[in-house]
Task: inverse folding
């Protein structure tokens, strides 16, 4: 093992540390993505162990380990599997490798550096829930990951680990490599399924909240994140108890976290779940080693671009979902973006709002129209063309996407107390609210930066504010058949 | 302006056979068409519509949803400079301005020699390596202006080996016939997989 | 309608704005609330389509026990104890916000928009919306309306992307030719380049568009909603009897909308049902009686014309063709008049292109609802329903896709429903009757086995039967239908005849072997259309009356028709237009048309529904029933009625089928009145004639109809006239490849009628050994290949 703080150039961004390494153990090796290396380092022993046990027992092992989903929602994988209705066939597993949440960088590393570990995770999951068709959906803009996984699958098929009669056990499963074509929203699991059906990647209506009952082709479907599945070989080799011995009861094991932005050593770290705090991660030498140039921390996004922001007040919170929610944000996909004291806050917020506006699928009105509208108002403000009224308008448009209190962190300086996660929303999925989250965080936590940016409104504009509302009419819409 | 050539059509049929329903193959097939022609032509979309049994309008509906599918020719190298938060915090805007200056095109433009198309892109899942960019969806990390100049020079000279726009993975998945479980339309599946012990198939 | 309460007692209770509402399980909240008087605003929701929850306008506060939360009421099914607040501050705030955002990119061109005045977006903005826009940026811009088909224009700037039209195109019509294109804020609806939205159902998208984004060519800029007067009526375009609303402005029909009738069309219309009103509103109508003088027609006064007709009928041997255009009342009046005046009457409403009347009248009749009820089996014998009875096609398609109805097809080629059929059997011409027997017994391959199993399953079976091939003797279809109905339990029949009120005409005895009321008669009227034409040609009758019939265009044996029209002593034509057949007439009487007469219509189920007058007939044109009364009066006979009501009373008194009709309630009954067509006789099995053995060299001809053809109704409607293609001979891919010619090349076709040249193309819908030509198209008249009396038509095709 490389000493803590060592960067591994063949795994760009990954930085070794002293914590137990569950999913990144092979990153040390330059050839970690080959079947030879995988087999030499205990590869495919997890599925071998699993095949010696009844599927239900394997499922039980994973459920006991409480592997929290690593895609963003943090739902326990074993419980999710259990939502499959009994005796409805066929069933499908779809692997979500569409990593694209701003700030997130881990699934791509796992696919590029250790594709066999992911394949083995898929095999275990397929065996445990009793299905024989798995689709491994990799983000389109990841040519290298596609190459590595394709090669690994070809080798694994040839060597008898995937396909008909795996390891002579009778267990048979096809893993089909599928890849996307550039749409963030496809990371949402129902949109992923739509995309896999060859459709526009637009999220389906909820309920059902999980595709476990009605998923791909309307059939029971499990969607699991790459990192989630990458944990399974270790769990089958070492047991749920060993997994639960790491981290906390409610957030066991390790998780991968990418820290980007204004830190001394941005990188991807495998950290202990549940106990590691943001302060540990940002300041310890084992991890990021502090804010760049010794500057002061201004704010950080704790869980990917969708997450409401934290300020130094929240540094001592651990990576434990049950503690983050009440404090007004979420852990999301393991992505921390750090802003130091020099950061232009409105501009930083704009970079995220623009992202979500751009990535709106266009299905529902508040996201399609509201996201772009937010982006335009914020652009105007950032460019110095905004007025005081625009700041109110930002919150008003946001309230049309997320009515009621929007989650935010407490802040001693501003005398703010926390408003808990999540939010109410008028949209189908979280993309619309995500366009508003950075606007709301930035405006709430750093109002002065916006105040300084805008000019006063022209009083002559006020003439129209008290215009009467229209007269109600009979609301029957079309005369006939409408 | 072409339909899939004979070889690619065979490949397309092989890909379609992996899915329980043919339309599922649409995105991989669009990639195949883009690999063949560098962008997606109307003829290709009509051909794919025939292959998967949908209307051309449905193919266009899917195709136009995804940003990687280009309905007009692009440069040999598509240069995507990330502008989302982590990169923005570490100089993405400056890198983009530099790129516009060096390539002599504005965002969205293609150089006169047809080599480079410059785009401003959204998050590329390399946030710790900001600012980053992609050339034909292959990453370049922590790119400084001088790194960019060298990259452009290497691509022009051929010193950098990056496949032309349209090609993603240089390795194709191949499922050997004797190992394949095979795809069955979902409505034809009425029971659990054969290997599943009966007491499990509840 | 899945989300509406059924006859079963409501099983649960919810609270809407404080009031208890009893609901059926599975009912959508938006529907339950509306039923209880609370209209929740909506744009994307349409009660006949799957909810998509896209517009978010119908968000309301719903508390299912875990506290109130905003939910789209079009997606939420009611649950016991659910508490709903549609007017909570949060719901109001959400709705206002949605409306504001919908208007962000919506142009302010209401003053020039066709939808203005009947626009849900406009109405809801006035009711709920903010008084001003806070959106100061440039709106989205697109080229103003683009023609997405010959009939429909799309203005993408006005579009609010509710998915109604695209959902209709894909889910209801099965023509996904319009689609969402691009993504996010740039999403638009459009077609694929050079692939227009050429759907038979395109007009429905205009009707269900909640804004003015989709407009129909015939209606654009013709009227304002507040100038329109309207009446509910029934479409007489085909036998489905779709319910419609006729709208007029300044005494001209300007628009037809589909009315949501649970029994028939569910609000949908084919473009023919929607736009063929243009024909009666057009400038080519007959506006005065015409009398032939030598080779010229000269105007005549009605009194003179009636007298002429009376003379030609009174104490004469009379033949009648047609009658399907007439209302039931007019059919009765004509039949009563003829019976009283003429020495003898032979009449046929089918023009040698239908089915034996005894099957249509005598087999136990099904309803559309029965055919489409969940869990049933439908056997379709005939041509593509999409071409023949498009609205019935939509109902059946929905039933197969959503309600588990299994379809067995016995059709000459693949149809629009083949991809979703359980068994799709395509016997070559001459093999249909045998194929039906095989489908019952399960011999002949997988499709037959599946069919046999379904037919024996005990599930309710409905046979939808028509005449799929005009080049195959009617006895083949007749035997096939008789076989299935005779051999299967729990079976009923839905006749797929095509022409207007043909069922009314059959019921009133315009068919050989039957008097009014489906009473069998072994004397008197025993000649079918061919027999009538022969009688006219050889002098066996004195007078031939064309009651809206155009035998020159419609009868397969065109030569016979020509001889008959030229040869008969007296020819009386009653029509809306000067058809080719009318030109032979001695006297032409101008009739009032669609939208100009009150009366009633009997559809293929035996459902009587009202047709209504909305506009004044042009010139001196008058209702058919009045013409009959006038002719009788001229002959000195009083039929006993001179108003519609009196006519109806007389009808109820004279014809048993109509005795129970509640005439005064007819106009109010949304789904009309289903008549009891039970007979006291059982139809005979009609054995198929014997087809010659296949010779292995020739092809057997299929001649069938398409929705757009050279028929009068289509050709007199300016917007539709150009939609009929030229006839091209289709052959199977294998047979085409054997020819070794390029698609569209001219080939030589030899039949017993001689040698012909025509264009040929390859088709994936035909079995080997069959060739298809559409009936009544330009390019090549398929009738030139038909020879009277042949069981099937053999042709030889050669490349040169």
Result:
């Amino acid at each position: 093992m490389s000493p803590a703080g060592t960067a591994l150039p063949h795994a760009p961004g990954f930085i070794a540390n002293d914590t137990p390494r569950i999913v990144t153990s092979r990153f040390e090796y330059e050839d970690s993505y080959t079947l030879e290396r995988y087999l030499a380092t205990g590869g495919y022993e997890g599925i071998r162990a699993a095949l010696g046990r009844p599927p239900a027992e394997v499922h039980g092992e994973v459920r006991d380990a409480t592997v929290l989903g690593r895609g963003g929602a943090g739902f326990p994988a074993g419980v999710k599997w259990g939502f499959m209705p009994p005796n409805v066939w066929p069933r499908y597993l779809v692997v979500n490798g569409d990593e694209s949440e701003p700030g997130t960088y881990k699934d791509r590393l796992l696919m590029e550096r250790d594709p066999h570990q992911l394949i083995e995770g898929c095999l275990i999951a397929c065996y445990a829930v009793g299905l024989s068709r798995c689709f491994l959906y990799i983000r389109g803009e990841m040519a290298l990951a596609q190459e590595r996984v394709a090669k690994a699958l070809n080798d694994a098929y040839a060597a008898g680990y995937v396909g008909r009669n795996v390891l002579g056990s009778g267990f048979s499963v096809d893993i089909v490599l599928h890849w996307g074509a550039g749409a963030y929203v496809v990371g949402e699991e129902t949109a992923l399924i739509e995309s896999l059906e060859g459709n526009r990647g637009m999220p389906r209506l909820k309920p059902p909240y999980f595709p476990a009952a009605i998923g791909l082709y309307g059939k029971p479907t499990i969607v699991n994140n790459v990192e989630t599945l990458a944990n399974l070989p270790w769990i089958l080799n070492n047991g749920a108890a060993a997994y639960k011995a790491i981290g906390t009861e409610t957030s066991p094991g390790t998780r991968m976290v990418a820290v980007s932005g204004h830190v001394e050593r941005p990188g991807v770290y495998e950290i202990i779940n549940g106990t590691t705090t943001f302060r540990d991660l940002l300041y310890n030498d084992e991890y990021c080693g502090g804010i760049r140039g010794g500057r002061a921390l201004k704010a950080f996004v704790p869980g990917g671009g969708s997450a409401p922001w934290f300020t130094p007040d929240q540094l001592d919170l651990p990576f434990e979902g049950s503690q983050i929610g009440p404090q007004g944000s979420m852990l999301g996909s393991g992505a921390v973006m750090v802003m130091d004291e020099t950061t232009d806050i409105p501009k930083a917020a704009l970079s995220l709002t623009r992202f979500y506006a751009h990535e709106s699928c266009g299905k529902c009105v508040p996201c399609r129209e509201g996201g772009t509208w937010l982006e335009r108002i914020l652009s105007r403000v950032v460019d110095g063309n905004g007025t005081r009224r625009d700041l109110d308008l930002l919150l008003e448009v946001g309230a049309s996407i997320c009515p009621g209190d929007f989650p935010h962190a407490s802040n001693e300086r501003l005398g703010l107390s926390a408003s808990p996660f999540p939010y109410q929303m008028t949209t189908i999925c979280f993309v619309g609210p995500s366009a508003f989250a950075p606007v709301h965080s930035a405006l709430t936590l750093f109002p002065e930066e916006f105040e300084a940016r805008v000019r006063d409104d022209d009083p002559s504009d006020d003439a129209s504010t008290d215009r009467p509302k229209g007269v109600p009419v009979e609301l029957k819409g079309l005369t006939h058949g409408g | 302006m072409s339909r899939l050539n004979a070889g690619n059509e065979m490949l397309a049929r092989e890909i379609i056979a992996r899915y329980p329903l043919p339309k599922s193959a649409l995105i991989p097939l669009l990639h195949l068409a883009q690999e063949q022609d560098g962008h997606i032509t109307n003829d290709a979309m009509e051909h794919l519509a025939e292959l998967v049994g949908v209307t051309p309008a449905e193919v266009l509906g899917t195709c136009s949803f995804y940003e990687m599918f280009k309905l007009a020719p692009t440069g040999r190298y598509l240069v995507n400079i990330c502008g989302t938060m982590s990169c923005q915090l570490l100089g993405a805007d400056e890198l983009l301005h530099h790129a516009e200056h060096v390539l002599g095109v504005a965002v969205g433009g293609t150089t006169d020699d047809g080599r480079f198309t410059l785009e401003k892109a959204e998050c590329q899942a390399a946030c710790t390596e900001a600012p980053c960019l992609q050339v034909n969806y292959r990453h370049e990390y922590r790119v400084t202006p001088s790194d960019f100049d060298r990259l452009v020079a290497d691509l022009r000279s051929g010193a950098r080996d990056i496949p032309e726009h349209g090609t993603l993975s240089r390795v194709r998945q191949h499922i050997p016939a004797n190992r394949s479980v095979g795809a069955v339309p979902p409505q034809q599946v009425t029971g659990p997989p054969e290997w599943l012990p009966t007491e499990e198939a509840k | 309608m899945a989300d509406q309460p059924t006859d079963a007692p409501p099983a649960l209770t919810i609270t809407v704005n404080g009031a208890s509402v009893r609901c059926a399980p599975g009912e959508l909240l938006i529907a339950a609330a509306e039923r209880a008087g609370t209209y929740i605003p909506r744009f994307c929701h349409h009660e006949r389509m799957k909810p998509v929850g896209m517009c978010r306008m119908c968000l309301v506060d719903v508390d299912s026990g875990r506290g109130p939360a905003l939910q789209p009421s079009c997606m939420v099914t009611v649950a016991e104890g659910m508490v709903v607040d549609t007017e909570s501050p949060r719901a109001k705030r959400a709705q206002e916000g949605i409306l504001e955002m919908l208007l962000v990119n919506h142009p302010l061109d209401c003053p020039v928009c066709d939808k203005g005045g009947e626009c849900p977006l406009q109405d809801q903005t006035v009711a709920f919306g903010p008084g001003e826009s806070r959106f100061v940026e440039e709106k989205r811009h697109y080229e103003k309306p683009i023609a997405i088909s010959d009939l429909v224009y799309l203005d993408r700037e006005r579009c609010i992307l509710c998915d109604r039209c695209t959902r209709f195109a894909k889910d209801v019509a099965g023509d996904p030719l319009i689609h969402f294109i691009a993504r996010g804020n740039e999403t638009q609806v459009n077609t694929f380049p050079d692939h227009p939205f050429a759907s038979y159902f395109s007009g429905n998208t205009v009707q269900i568009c909640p804004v003015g984004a989709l407009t129909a060519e015939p209606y654009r800029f013709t009227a304002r909603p507040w100038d329109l007067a309207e009446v509910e009526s029934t479409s007489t375009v085909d036998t489905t009897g779709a319910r419609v609303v006729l709208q007029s402005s300044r005494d001209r029909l300007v628009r037809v909308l589909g009315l949501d009738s649970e029994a028939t069309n569910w609000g949908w219309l084919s473009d023919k049902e929607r736009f063929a009103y243009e024909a009666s509103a057009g400038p080519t109508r007959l506006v005065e009686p015409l009398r032939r003088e030598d080779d010229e027609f000269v105007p005549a006064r009605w009194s003179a014309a009636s007298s002429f007709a009376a003379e030609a009928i009174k104490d004469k041997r009379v033949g009648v063709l047609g009658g399907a255009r007439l209302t039931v009342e007019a059919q009765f009046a004509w039949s009563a008049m003829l019976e009283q005046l003429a020495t003898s009457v032979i009449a046929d409403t089918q023009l040698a292109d239908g089915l034996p009347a005894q099957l249509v009248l005598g087999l136990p009749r099904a309803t559309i609802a029965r055919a489409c009820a969940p869990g049933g089996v439908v056997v379709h014998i005939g041509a593509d329903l999409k071409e023949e009875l498009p609205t019935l096609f939509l109902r059946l398609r929905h039933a197969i896709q959503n309600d588990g109805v299994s379809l067995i097809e016995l059709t000459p080629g693949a149809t629009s429903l083949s991809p979703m059929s359980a068994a799709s059997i395509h016997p070559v011409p001459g093999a249909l009757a045998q194929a039906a027997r095989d489908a019952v017994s399960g011999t002949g391959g997988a499709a037959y086995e599946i069919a046999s199993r379904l037919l024996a399953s005990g599930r309710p079976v409905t046979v939808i039967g028509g005449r799929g091939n005009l080049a195959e003797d009617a006895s083949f279809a007749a035997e096939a239908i008789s076989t299935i109905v005779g051999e299967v339990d729990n079976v009923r029949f839905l006749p797929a005849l095509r022409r207007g009120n043909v069922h009314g005409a059959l019921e009133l005895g315009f068919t050989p072997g039957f008097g009014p009321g489906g009473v069998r008669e072994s004397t008197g009227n025993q000649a079918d259309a061919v027999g009538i034409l022969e009688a006219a040609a050889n002098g066996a009758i004195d007078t031939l009356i064309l009651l809206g019939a155009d035998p020159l265009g419609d009868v397969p044996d065109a030569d016979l028709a020509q001889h008959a029209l030229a040869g008969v002593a007296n020819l009386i034509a009653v029509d809306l237009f000067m058809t080719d057949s009318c030109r032979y007439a001695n006297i032409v009487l101008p009739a009032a048309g669609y939208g100009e007469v009150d009366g009633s219509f009997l559809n293929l189920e035996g459902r009587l529904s009202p047709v209504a007058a909305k506009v004044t007939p042009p010139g001196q044109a008058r209702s058919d029933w009045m013409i009959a009364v006038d002719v009788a009066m001229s002959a000195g006979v009083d039929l006993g009625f001179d108003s519609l009501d009196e006519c109806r009373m007389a009808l109820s008194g004279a014809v048993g089928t109509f005795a129970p009709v509640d005439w005064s309630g007819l106009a109010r009954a949304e789904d009309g009145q289903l008549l009891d067509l039970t007979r006291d006789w059982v139809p005979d099995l009609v054995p198929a004639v014997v087809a010659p053995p296949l010779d292995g060299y020739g092809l057997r001809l299929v001649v069938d109809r398409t929705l757009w053809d050279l028929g009068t109704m289509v050709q007199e409607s300016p917007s539709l006239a150009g939609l009929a293609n030229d006839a091209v001979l289709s052959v199977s891919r294998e047979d085409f490849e054997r020819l070794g010619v390029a698609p569209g090349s001219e080939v030589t076709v030899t039949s017993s009628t001689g040698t012909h040249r025509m264009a040929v193309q390859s088709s994936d819908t035909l079995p080997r050994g069959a060739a298809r030509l559409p009936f009544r198209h330009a390019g090549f008249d398929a009738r030139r290949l038909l020879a009277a009396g042949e069981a099937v038509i053999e042709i030889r095709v050669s490349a040169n």
Q: What stands out?
A: The radius of gyration of chain B is 21 Å.
